[in-house]
Amino acid sequence: MSRRASILATGSHVPARILSNEDLEKIVDTSDEWIVSRTGIKTRHISGPGEYTSVLASRAAANTLAAAGLAATEIDILIVATVSAEMTMPSCACLVQKELGAIKAFAFDINAACSGFIYGLSVAEKYILANPQLKVMVIGAETLSTRVNWQDRNTCVLFGDAAGAVLLGSSDQGDGIVAEKLFSDGTLYNLLYMDGAQSLNPALRNEEFEGSLIKMVGRDVFKYAVNAMENAVRAVLAQAGVAIDEVRLVVPHQANIRIINKLTQKLGVDPEKVYINVTKYGNTSAATIPLALDEANREGRLQSGDYVILCAFGGGFTWGATLIKWQ
Ligand code: ACO
């Protein structure tokens, strides 16, 4: 049987503080009815003081190691997908390495916005196929609450903070990453972007400093996201020769329930097979897929041999899909 990069364990972490739509009604001119009908989001988790992206990422990674029964010192490569690290240098991944004590690993970040986690999986897979001994931790982590304009009702209701992680190793039992397709189109960058750095630097944490806040043309993003994810999923299934009916679970990027529902309809997939938790967490960018995958895993929705599809879309634009046979 061919050797593949397989997910050995999953884990996640969300900050304790919950911000409801009713809480948002007190901050901007919005309503629970508007937010739920347009996005499906009811609550999101928001980081408190000191709960930086690297802190959420480290907790998700520690939970993943516990699930795998592995020590941090056994990680060979540590990859963090994020657009909201608390420092520009070092990478978030190096801060996570320090926190975990993953002394053997080399560590680096990936910036592919909401698609970052599946980009990270793709990189991890290549290392593992080159050297089956390697154990690679891939984390998606964000504190987008530090990047939204809390006066802008168009964006502040959409995002939340979270981290999710997977540990990958080699398998020759047929499980693992079966196929993947990644895409980018930089010509469309200005439909969704942050043009400045936000960091621990007190000057850049100034709420008046708009340079580091998310700007988005929501309607255009919506349209591109649905078509792009549909095409990516179809391309991956065609590459693997797998029919959509054979897929046990679709784990899409959790940006908006209407994007997910439209995608479900266009793919002709049974809605029961599509994992949704955007209702609880909002859009946590690179963290949505590993967080959803970990919840699905812990809920027992993934059995050995199941086909799982991950698909993402985000700023850049970046998008793609990954087909996995569960271990
Ligand atoms: N509460 C109340 N009213 C609001 C709010 C709010 N939170 N936000 C916008 N509105 C108003 C607008 O001001 C506008 O009012 P007007 O008609 O008086 O000008 C009206 O609602 C309609 O605004 P639209 O932007 O046209 O609303 P739309 O139906 O397109 O929904 C939304 C907006 C939810 C952002 C939608 O476009 C969307 O989901 N886009 C996808 C964007 C996304 O998910 N981005 C996440 C990052 S990318 C990714 O992760 C894939």
Describe this structure in words.
By secondary structure, the protein is an alpha/beta fold. The protein folds into 2 domains: about 5-175, 3-Layer(aba) Sandwich (Peroxisomal Thiolase, Chain A, domain 1), CATH 3.40.47; about 175-325, Thiolase/Chalcone synthase (Peroxisomal Thiolase, Chain A, domain 1), CATH 3.40.47.10. The chain contains 10 helices and 13 strands. It has a 5-stranded mixed sheet with strand order 1-7-6-4-5, sandwiched between helices. A 4-stranded mixed sheet has the order 8-13-12-11, sandwiched between helices. Strands 2-3 form a two-stranded antiparallel ribbon. Helix 4 (about 90-100) links the parallel strand 4 and strand 5. Helix 3 packs across helix 4 and helix 7 runs parallel beside helix 8. It is globular, with a radius of gyration of 18 Å. The two termini are about 15 Å apart. Bound molecules: acetyl coenzyme *A.
Cross-sheet strand order for the largest sheet: 1-7-6-4-5
Q: How much helicity do the residues have?
A: 25-40%
Total domain units: 2
Which CATH architecture of the largest domain would you pick?
Answer: 3-Layer(aba) Sandwich
